[in-house]
């Protein structure tokens, strides 16, 4: 986004309106210089960190990356010393991209480059490089709303589908920490603020309609990433699909039941429709515990390449789902019976606090910063108006909570019956025990998706999770 002098409005860069794919050499359809737009209309981050060159895309190998970074004075200075002495390690363990950690005498950076295909599957599944640009847009947007809760972008090259970021240290990927049984006492504060501020300030509660619609347009080209979600989360786990997998043979019968369950199919189809047609806010789009880096004191959200204007509950549901899975997988990581009790109690408290703190923070923003076109204050005059508007806010949060539970359920089911699984379960070596943990999660998820209205509070969710943790599924053996 850029700031227009005089009108005080943030604007998305016009180049974001067109999708592009440097590999197929599709031209960028809208590309205006700062001069043509008026210097004040060009965003400062594009001037400072987005490389104006349109490099030919190539997958960067170590020596190429070293030369490339050496040619960026600010990055080279940050790393320090001779480029030849920098260490470069590829650490990407996600499903899509290359990620390099580069360290020099003075400091380090993280470099993320999109591959033209899904890394998890290979070249047979092409994927647009444009996701790197949407990630850059989302990161720079989030950095204004929640500085310190996302990595600072230091450089972006659209042609190379490359983002250079601040190195987040000494943080670990939250999923790994949870598998090890670590507690993160400050996580709730960070994630609640991240979600409340990024969702509220990109919604119609905060924005004039024209600005909101510009935002929707700026991210509309990220549809290939949305399509992954539409297929892998909302469709494939409920039908026969070549890429589905589950813990065999234990979950064969459950997977078959889920493919026949029409109540479940109706519920997940409603959620899919909401994902398709509810541009409520700029969502992260993939907010699982692998997209969150933590220490005891700090929380940093990474990887918003799935960002687009979608339903808020999809982000909140992703967080809740992944915490529920960490909780239900916990017994599979025990080294002595009951040895992870403290962790499990903390997990359930954390799930409750995530919703409660998010909800409080979001409502407070609505009460104090609602400059958007939704709910005009002139329609709610006086004490009676204020009371009616407050009742409306509570109803909005109840609807958002129901969305959150539905999306959380979909996120759980896809990790157990779909293509992309979670290390929380995958690292449980005893496959029968893994299947027990997964079957419990599926049972909870089905209830959350089909009987959503029965869960009126987050306490009802954690109570159900506690009960299902002790349920013993019967497998046909
Ligand atoms: C083919 S991509 C599989 C999954 O990886 C990403 O992290 C998203 O969750 C996506 O659904
Ligand atoms: Mg990711």
Q: For this structure, what is the CATH homologous superfamily of the largest domain?
A: Aminoglycoside phosphotransferase (APH), C-terminal lobe
Shape: globular
CATH architecture of the largest domain: Alpha-Beta Complex
Q: How many DSSP E strands?
A: 14
Structural class: alpha+beta
Q: What helical percentage do the residues reach?
A: 40-55%
Can you list the ligands bound to this structure? 5-S-methyl-5-thio-alpha-D-ribofuranose, magnesium ion
CATH class of the largest domain: Alpha Beta
* Averaged pLDDT: 91
Give a quick set of tags describing it:
single chain; 477 residues; alpha+beta; 2 domains; three-stranded antiparallel sheet; 47% helix; globular; disordered N terminus; binds magnesium ion
Structural overview:
With 477 residues, the protein is an alpha+beta fold. The protein folds into two domains: 2-166, Phosphorylase Kinase, domain 1, CATH 3.30.200; 172-469, Aminoglycoside phosphotransferase (APH), C-terminal lobe (Aminoglycoside 3'-phosphotransferase, Chain: A, domain 2, Alpha-Beta Complex). It is 47% helix and 12% strand. The protein is built from 17 helices and 14 strands. It has helices at 34-37, 44-48, 62-70, 73-79, 131-145, 174-179, 187-200, 209-219, 223-232, 252-260, 262-277, 312-329, 341-369, 382-417, 423-426, 431-450, 458-469; strands at residues 2-4, 9-11, 87-90, 97-103, 108-114, 117-118, 122-126, 153-157, 162-166, 172-173, 281-283, 292-294, 299-301, 308-310. The protein has a five-stranded antiparallel beta sheet with strand order 3-4-5-9-8, with helices on both faces. A three-stranded antiparallel beta sheet has the order 10-12-13. A hairpin with a 3-residue loop joins strand 6 (117-118) and strand 7. Helix 16 (431-450) runs antiparallel to helix 17. The longest helix has 36 residues, at 382-417. The radius of gyration is 23 Å and the shape is globular. The model is unreliable at 1-9 and 14-47 (pLDDT under 50).
């Amino acid at each position: 986004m850029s700031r227009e002098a005089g009108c005080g409005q943030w604007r998305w860069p016009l180049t974001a309106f067109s999708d592009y794919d440097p590999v197929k050499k599709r031209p960028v359809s809208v590309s205006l210089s700062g001069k043509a737009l008026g210097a004040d209309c060009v965003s400062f981050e594009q001037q400072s960190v987005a490389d104006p060159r349109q490099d030919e895309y190539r997958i960067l190998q170590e020596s190429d990356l070293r030369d490339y970074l050496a040619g960026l004075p600010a990055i080279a200075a940050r790393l320090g010393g001779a480029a030849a002495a920098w260490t470069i390690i590829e650490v990407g363990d996600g499903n899509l991209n290359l990620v390099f950690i580069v360290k020099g005498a003075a400091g380090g950076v993280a470099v993320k480059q999109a591959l033209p295909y899904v890394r998890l599957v290979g070249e047979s599944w092409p994927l647009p490089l444009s996701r790197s640009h949407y990630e850059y847009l989302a990161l720079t947007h989030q950095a204004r709303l929640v500085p310190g809760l996302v990595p600072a972008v230091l450089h972006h090259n659209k042609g190379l589908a490359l983002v250079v970021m601040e190195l987040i240290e000494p943080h670990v990927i939250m999923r790994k920490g949870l598998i090890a049984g670590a507690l993160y006492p400050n996580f709730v504060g960070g994630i609640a603020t991240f979600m409340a501020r990024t969702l509220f300030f990109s919604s119609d509660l905060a924005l004039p309609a024209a600005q909101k619609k510009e935002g929707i347009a700026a991210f509309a080209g990220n549809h290939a990433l949305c399509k992954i979600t539409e297929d892998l989360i909302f469709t494939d786990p409920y039908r026969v699909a070549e890429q589905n997998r589950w813990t065999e043979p234990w979950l064969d019968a459950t997977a078959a039941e889920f493919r026949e369950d029409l109540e479940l199919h109706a519920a997940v189809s409603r959620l899919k429709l909401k994902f398709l047609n509810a541009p409520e806010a700029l969502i992260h789009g993939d907010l699982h515990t692998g997209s969150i880096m933590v220490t005891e004191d700090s929380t940093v959200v990474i990887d918003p390449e799935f960002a687009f204007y979608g339903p808020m509950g999809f982000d909140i549901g992703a967080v809740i789902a992944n915490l529920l899975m960490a909780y239900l997988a916990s017994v599979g990581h025990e080294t002595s019976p009951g040895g992870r009790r403290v962790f499990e109690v903390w997990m359930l408290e954390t799930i409750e606090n995530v919703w409660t703190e998010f909800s409080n923070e979001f409502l407070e923003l609505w009460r104090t910063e609602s400059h958007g076109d939704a709910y005009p204050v002139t329609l709610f005059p006086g004490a009676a108006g204020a009371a009616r508007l407050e009742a409306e806010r509570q109803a909005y949060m109840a609807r958002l909570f129901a969305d959150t539970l539905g999306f959380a359920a979909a996120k759980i089911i896809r990790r157990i019956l779909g293509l992309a699984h979670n290390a929380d379960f995958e690292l449980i070596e005893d496959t029968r025990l893994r299947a027990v943990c997964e079957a419990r999660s599926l049972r909870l998820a089905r209830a959350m998706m089909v009987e959503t209205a029965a869960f009126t509070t987050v306490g009802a969710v954690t109570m159900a999770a506690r009960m299902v943790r002790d349920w013993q599924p019967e497998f046909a053996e």
